[in-house]
Amino acid sequence: MAQNGCEHSERVLTMDTMNPNVKRVEYAVRGPIVQRAVQIERELNMGIKKPFTEVIKANIGDCHAMGQKPITFFRQVLALCSYPDLLEDSKFPEDAKSRARRILQAISQGIEMIRQDVARYIERRDGGITCDPDNIYLSTGASDGIVTMLKLLVSGEGVSRTGVMISIPQYPLYSAALADLGAVQISYYLDEDNCWSLDINELRRALQEAKKHCSPQALCIINPGNPTGQVQSRQCIEDVIRFAAAEKLFLMADEVYQDNVYAEGSKFHSFKKVLFEMGPEYSEKVELASFHSTSKCYMGECGFRGGYMEVINLDPEVKFQLTKLVSVRLCPPVPGQALLDVVVNPPQPDEPSYDTFIKERTDTLATLAEKASMTQEILNQVPGIKCNPVQGAMYTFPREGTSSRYVLLYEASGRKRHLFGSWQMTILPPVEKLKIVLAKIKEFHQHFVEQYS
Amino acid sequence: MAQNGCEHSERVLTMDTMNPNVKRVEYAVRGPIVQRAVQIERELNMGIKKPFTEVIKANIGDCHAMGQKPITFFRQVLALCSYPDLLEDSKFPEDAKSRARRILQAISQGIEMIRQDVARYIERRDGGITCDPDNIYLSTGASDGIVTMLKLLVSGEGVSRTGVMISIPQYPLYSAALADLGAVQISYYLDEDNCWSLDINELRRALQEAKKHCSPQALCIINPGNPTGQVQSRQCIEDVIRFAAAEKLFLMADEVYQDNVYAEGSKFHSFKKVLFEMGPEYSEKVELASFHSTSKCYMGECGFRGGYMEVINLDPEVKFQLTKLVSVRLCPPVPGQALLDVVVNPPQPDEPSYDTFIKERTDTLATLAEKASMTQEILNQVPGIKCNPVQGAMYTFPREGTSSRYVLLYEASGRKRHLFGSWQMTILPPVEKLKIVLAKIKEFHQHFVEQYS
Q: Which of A18, A76, A449, B340 is 20 to 30 Å from the Cα of A91, by its Cα?
């Protein structure tokens, strides 16, 4: 398919010679809709008149871009680490200074301390279940850890090529990384009619189907869910672990929203904790990598690219290979590592920053909970829109139309249905902006139904 | 080769099932010698007696870890960006505050401004040759940009598999990334007898040889050189560009040491500048990606993982794919982007921080120049050690023994020759420490020669 005779054929790197896996990568988060939104925003700033006055971005989980305030204590420690002369400044609280001193000292020794702090955080979170700092790998956000684990898992050709199970709807990192690595994506569908819960029978169906054309090796879970906002029950997690053990699948648990749980009766259970509570039959056998990040929860610090993964039951030789692989890319960004350290080691009750810290954290999570319930309530008031409760994370995944009638309407309108049938939306915009967004959706939907009915 | 019956065979992810490319990755920078050094250091700290009292790490180009002071202005701006309350603090100079305000404003708009600032920096550096901000991709250090470009270039199977030319001695990122991507490494040897210069005839030899078993697509150059410290002449760069044009190779220019030039008569010429000065026959045809970073030069800010690449003559469709690919990994760390912006946009003569900034930059580079010449001088005083001038970068690559006599000596001693024959060493330790390192090498070498002669 070379375009002979045209200037492009002179190039070394063309669509014909390029790595074919790259072409298969799809990634909507920064795709054409976002680019168009940025363009419209620019036009509005230039004074061009439109039937609206602002662009409210409800597409991505970047909390601070949506107006959420960073946690003061974290930023104080980071400023102190960036410019240690500030350690002499009386305006900074003592606990922030002592954290900064500790981090600066640790950095000069190579950041073992941060992995130890992460391990202690996990132990506290999981009610005392042991965490070995040697199982902690710091990463450039959670994405980096996820891609690294997937890379280790991919091998084989043809029907023995590695297959990886991912949920649909999914966070597009997974499909993009699998395409990039040339692995086989095995899609399992979450149950929209049951609050986007995970159904073990559906896992079974997807796996059996996949075994015909690839070698399934891993199962990826996002809990709390992105983009669907569900929180898995303890029972469900146990079932998933039993399934992984029986089917010999490597478990990958994306738990970056572990503090974002809003719905009454919902609670975050880490895969690690449930695994160990199920006893040695599982805890000594099932291979698990779990991922966390400084980008979500009440922190929302996307820009620092801080994160970690914990690996359980990893083959020691493979672990050596993993260490080598992450070394090639040098270290994750140090400001992100410093931030991670304060996240896992926040102000304690006897420290001067404690009250402010707790207030900021509580307020941030309370506001998210308020927006979660408001979003679901307003959307469900619109006839024809169905929206599951936002139990956790930062997203809702509502759908327009519960019957094929809407499909016909969309076809009649000439609009592309996939843009409107179901869609992901963050609950992150400030309450006032979120109300505008929801009102606009309501208005658009009602107008659309009236016009084409 | 599955280990049946042993506990490992129960695992999903073993050395047998793991991605085979990962096994092929080699990376010495964080390998066994470094791990042993860290262990020895720990033992010394614990009070264990050794025939020495400290570990001086001369293995990696991490300036600050070696005691080099960060540039004040950069760290002030970063502290202000981390904790904007400091914008009210009268202790910070106005120019640092205005940079921070500008960056905070830009971040909220999505960092187009930083790419524009990089483009203007490149234009100033290259004597006015135009730079389009759309050709600038911000990256997580230079490594990230290099791996991304290599990924785009890799395709084909068997004899049509992509081959990439890299210099030997090399920076191990290149061999590691090629192994990881399953590409073919084409080694060309730098000429030790001519100050580690690049010889076009050697490029030709390596290319002809490689064509028998792969499809050579790209040529990687590191200038100033890592680990060999040479600086390429303008003539050499022209020759390389002509070679790339004639042989249809994509050029990758790793120019992260562009401010680190010490030797009299040596000067940094960017590939971009030389390419454009050679006229449209080359400048409109040769595809070039060049890489820069905040980690080296006088900045030495490894930990922030800031960097950029500029792409020239990239196929527009491939460029779209590149943009998509970098989007999947979200953004490079924002503190690194902020740092990059101050690096390309430093204090100007009419600004309050100018004098301090210039003094720190000049002192840092002058100290490096002093250490470069001291290293070469002391090593060349040792009979049997030969050390090329350190024209640039931060390394020397001396060798023990100019004749086969030394090979025989090593064999007689039972030592592994590859640990001692030639080795890379940074010039980064503080002058006093560097003197100790050089004296120890001298002493060891003389003792060794006496003992086994």
A: B340
If DSSP codes are grouped into helix, strand and coil, which group holds residue B193? helix
pLDDT at B5 over 70: no
CA separation for the pair A227, B439 (Å, rounded)? 61
How far is the C-alpha of A246 from the C-alpha of A147, rounded, in Å?
Answer: 25
Cis peptide before B429 (omega within 30 of 0): no
> Do both B114 and B42 map to the same domain?
no
Contact (CB<8Å) B152/A13: yes
Domain presence at residue A267 = yes
Q: Are B9 and B131 members of one domain?
A: no
Cross-chain Cβ contact A327/B152 below 8 Å: no
Distance CA A196, CA A37 (A): 29
Query: Is residue A112 classed exposed, middle or buried when 0-12, 13-18 and 19+ CB atoms within 10 A define those classes?
Result: middle
What is the rounded CA–CA span in Å between residue B308 and residue B341?
11
CA distances from residue A374 to A262, A361, A390 in whole angstroms, order as listed: 12, 20, 10
Coil vs helix vs strand at A315? coil
How far apart CA B121 and CA B272 sit, in angstroms, is 13
Torsion of CA B350, B352, B353, B355, to 10 degrees: 70
Q: Residue B261: which domain range?
A: 96-344
Half-sphere exposure of B320 (CA within 13 A, CB side): 9
Q: Which of A314, A344, A374 is the last residue of a domain?
A: A344
Domain identity same for B39 and B162: no
Interface test with A, best of B42, B314, B315 (most A CBs within 10 A): B315
Q: How many CB pairs under 8 A join A and B?
A: 213
CA A110 to chain centre: 28
Q: Cβ contacts of residue A120 below 8 Å, gap of 6+?
A: A131, A344, A345
Is there a contact between A173 and B334 if contact means CB atoms under 8 Å apart?
Answer: no
Give the strand pairing for B399-400 and A288-293: unpaired
Number of domains in chain B: 2
Instruction: For residue B63, give the 3-state DSSP assignment.
Output: coil
Q: Do B335 and A303 touch (CB under 8 A)?
A: yes
Helices (H), B46-84: 72-82
Long-range contacts at B386-390 (CB < 8 A, ≥ 24 apart): B388/B192, B388/B195, B388/B196, B388/B228, B388/B229, B388/B230, B389/B195, B389/B229, B389/B263, B390/B229, B390/B262, B390/B263, B390/B427
As a whole number of angstroms, the distance between CA B202 and CA A94 comes to 61
In angstroms, the Cα distances linking B265 to B195, B234, B241, B363 are: 13, 11, 22, 20
pLDDT of B410: 59
- Residues A153, A48: one domain? no
**Interface touch A141/B302, C-beta < 8 Å:** no
User: Worst-scoring range by mean pLDDT, A121-125, A425-429, B241-245?
Assistant: A425-429
pLDDT digits (tens, 9 = 90+) for B410-428: 566 655 444 457 888 899 9
Residues B215 and B276 in one domain: yes
Secondary structure of residue B163 in the 3-state scheme: strand
Q: Which residue from A14, A65, A328 is facing B27, i.e. has the nearest CB? A: A328
Q: Which residue is closest to A65 within chain B, CA to CA?
A: B108
Q: Are B438 and B380 in contact (CB under 8 A)?
A: no
Residue B174 shares a structural domain with residue B51: no
Q: Is residue B413 part of a domain?
A: no
Is B123 in the same domain as B209? yes
Phi, psi of B198 (to 5 degrees): -95, 130
Q: With respect to residue A79, please indicate whether it lies within any of the assigned structural domains.
A: no
Q: What ipTM is given for this predicted complex?
A: 0.87
Sort out which chain B residues have CB atoms less than 8 A from A31's CB and list them: 324
pLDDT digits (tens, 9 = 90+) for A28-57: 656 677 778 888 988 998 999 998 888 887
Domain boundary among B291, B310, B344: B344
Q: Do B232 and B285 share a domain, yes or no?
A: yes
CATH number, residue A183: 3.40.640.10
Rounded to the nearest angstrom, the minimum Cα separation between A404 and chain B is: 34
